[in-house]
Amino acid sequence: MLQVGLLAAALAADAAAVTAGLAAAHRSVPALVRASVVFGVFQAVMAGLGAAGGVWLGAWLGTGLPWFAFVVLGALGVRMIVAVDEDTPMEPGWASLLSLGLATSVDALAAGVTLPAFPVPVVLSVGTVGLVTGLLCGAAGAVGWRAGARYGGAAQRLGGAVLIAVGVLAVWPD
Question: Distance from the CA of 74 to the CA of which of 1, 15, 103, 111 falls in 20 to 30 A?
Answer without folding.
Answer: 111
